[in-house]
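Severity: low
Component: inverse-folding endpoint
Summary: output formatting inconsistent between runs
Steps to reproduce: submit the following structure tokens with default settings.
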């Protein structure tokens, strides 16, 4: 694997690309319409975060937001939490989706392990959404009702969501790989009226029936009145055994005489409820607003993803991850969104690159772990597949190491805009991300997002440059949660974001802002490795270990000991058929000594069969740390939040067998 120094310049946009970029068009518009002149991106960002009211008001005008009632004020106050945006305005998210679309143009391309690649026009999408809206109305759905979906990343999910939002009802979804307990932990909190579900799904070439799980969910939801079932696994599956069931075919039968309507809702009214991973308890029900998401996703898609009607926008995701909601936002700017349901490694890791060639993707969104996995397997997709249409690779989920950037340029495409982004479910967007008018540096996120006043703070609440600190947001942001569902006095919300620095959003990541205004994320701040008073993020350790060919994944934790010192065990997953030998251990330690520092060399290295991860693929560093410190498992981790529950068994045994970690 090639090595590269963090911060190495890898790509600069051609002048032609900068002039064609949507953010350049916006700056030209500001110059003409608002008499505001900005010479570069950072001066634009500074204005957007100093004058946040003027910035977001300009987006209202620029994107020609449709509002049946004008807003009374742009921002109620700058206090957090509790700031309200565009109070009094009445809007509808779905109305903006279908605003002035070419009905013959392609809106969605979709495929799965069992479904061939198919295209849906804007006209077909509108017709199915209109028909589904009629079904929801007949089921008694009104503004504020909760509609839940237990569905994969398929076309039907988009239809159901758009119809839900068109009525001012509130959407929430879970992927069918979530088990009964995980779904109940989410859906029971919000008391839904209608559920959309599949009978099962395929993953990695295997069938998974979900009818029994769905029946269990129905029993656990006393408020549920209607279930709409999609025969996804089998056309012959007996979905008639489900209570109060309507088939998808029935739900999308259109009554031509009934008009398509858009319920006008207050700007700050709920659009959907996203759930945190729930690793340490019941998942947090995060409520985001119709207007906040509308404006933020228009901004992110246009200025930071540079997505337009000419693009085919893909992100590998499930409906249980906020990236699905973000992907649907691509419809707001008229792009063709591309959906794929299935394993990214079935029949092998070439699948998504083959899919990119087939569908002529222009924006390829994925996880850092997928790219590093391709890198470690020495793949060369740019040689094997025709990827000439790809202009951008975007990555999230965890920090993309510098070597991951370099691999893309060497093995995918030389003229490529790589955008590593960071945000989260909490805001359903990235607030550190990219833009096509800036250069790409290895391991660095290009810029802080417009309107997002991101800083790196030390413990004294002082902003840092070229030093690592806590990622904070010091001014309101439209897609912040308006509240948590059933959260009395906002206590859970305040504990989640505002308990470190009162009145300032603390995100929980370690961040460095460079002199060039780029950013580097070093992992979760509560999982930092502190040796002799020197702190580094876990991502730096993982980057070093990634160079060891025999290792496929790793996890490190910092365990405080009674003598005031600490222990840092490193757990590694080896390639199939490879054992962790003393020789490999020495290679790992040498790599960490040279890439990080001698003091951050792990105190011991252990081979494990698997690492515990959330359903969204994130490593459980903090729960593992607490288990190894002797905390009861049930108090530190919700097993229902894991994609691989059995992976915890090793760490539970380990904690019992080790009186004290060496």
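Observed output (run 2 of 3):
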């Amino acid at each position: 694997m090639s090595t590269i120094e963090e911060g190495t310049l890898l790509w600069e946009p051609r002048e032609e690309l900068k002039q064609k970029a949507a953010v350049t068009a916006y700056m030209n518009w500001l110059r003409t319409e608002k008499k505001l002149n900005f010479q570069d991106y950072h001066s634009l960002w500074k204005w957007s975060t100093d004058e946040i009211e003027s910035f977001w008001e300009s987006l209202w005008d620029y994107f020609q937001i449709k509002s049946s009632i004008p807003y009374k004020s742009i921002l109620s106050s700058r206090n957090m939490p509790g700031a309200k945006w565009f109070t009094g305005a009445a809007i509808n998210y779905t109305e903006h989706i279908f605003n002035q679309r070419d009905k013959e143009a392609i809106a969605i391309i979709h495929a799965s392990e069992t479904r061939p690649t198919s295209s849906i026009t804007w006209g077909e999408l509108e017709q199915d959404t209109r028909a589904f809206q009629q079904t929801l109305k007949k089921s008694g759905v009104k503004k504020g009702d909760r509609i839940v979906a237990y569905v994969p990343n398929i076309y039907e999910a988009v239809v159901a969501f758009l119809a839900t939002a068109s009525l001012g009802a509130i959407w929430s979804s879970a992927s069918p790989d979530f088990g009964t307990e995980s779904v109940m932990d989410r859906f029971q909190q919000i008391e839904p009226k209608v559920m959309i579900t599949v009978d099962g799904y395929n993953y990695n070439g295997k069938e998974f029936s979900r009818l029994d799980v769905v029946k269990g969910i129905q029993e656990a939801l006393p408020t549920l009145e209607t279930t709409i079932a999609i025969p996804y696994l089998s056309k012959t599956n007996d979905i008639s055994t489900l209570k109060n069931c309507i088939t998808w075919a029935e739900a999308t039968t259109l009554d031509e005489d009934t008009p398509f309507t858009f319920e006008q809702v207050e700007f700050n009214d709920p659009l959907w409820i996203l759930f945190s991973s729930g690793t340490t308890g019941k998942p947090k029900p995060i409520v985001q607003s119709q207007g906040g998401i509308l404006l933020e996703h228009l901004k992110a898609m246009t200025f930071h993803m540079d997505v337009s009607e000419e693009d085919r926008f893909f992100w590998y995701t499930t409906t249980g991850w906020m990236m699905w909601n973000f992907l649907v936002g691509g419809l707001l700017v008229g792009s063709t969104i591309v959906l794929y349901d299935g394993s990214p490694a079935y029949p092998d890791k070439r699948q998504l690159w083959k899919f990119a060639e087939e569908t002529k993707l222009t924006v390829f969104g994925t996880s850092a772990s997928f790219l590093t996995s391709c890198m470690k397997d020495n793949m060369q997709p740019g040689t094997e597949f025709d990827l000439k249409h790809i202009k951008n690779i975007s990555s999230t989920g965890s920090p993309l190491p510098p070597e991951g950037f370099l691999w893309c340029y060497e093995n995918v495409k030389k003229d490529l805009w790589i955008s590593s982004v960071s945000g989260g479910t909490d805001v359903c967007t990235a607030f550190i991300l990219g833009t096509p008018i800036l250069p790409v540096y290895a391991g660095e996120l290009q810029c802080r997002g417009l309107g997002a006043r991101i800083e790196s703070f030390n413990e004294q609440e002082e902003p840092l440059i070229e030093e690592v600190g806590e990622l904070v947001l010091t001014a309101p942001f439209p897609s912040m949660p308006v509240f948590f569902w059933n959260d009395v006095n906002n206590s859970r919300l305040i504990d989640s974001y505002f308990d470190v620095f009162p009145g300032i959003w603390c995100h929980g990541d370690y961040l460095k802002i460079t002199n060039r205004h780029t950013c580097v994320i070093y992992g979760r701040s509560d999982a930092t490795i502190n040796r002799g008073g020197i702190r580094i993020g876990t991502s730096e350790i993982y980057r070093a270990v990634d160079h060891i060919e025999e290792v496929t994944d790793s996890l490190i934790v910092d365990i405080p000991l009674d003598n005031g010192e600490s222990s840092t065990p490193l757990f590694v997953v080896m390639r199939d058929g490879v054992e962790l030998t003393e020789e490999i251990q020495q290679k790992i330690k040498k790599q960490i000594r040279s890439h990080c520092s001698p003091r951050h060399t792990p105190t011991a290295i252990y081979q494990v069969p698997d690492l515990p991860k959330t359903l969204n693929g994130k490593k459980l560093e903090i729960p593992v740390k607490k288990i190894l410190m002797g905390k009861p498992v049930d108090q530190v981790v919700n097993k229902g939040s894991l994609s691989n529950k059995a992976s915890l068994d090793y760490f539970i045994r380990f904690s019992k067998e080790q009186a004290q970690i060496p």
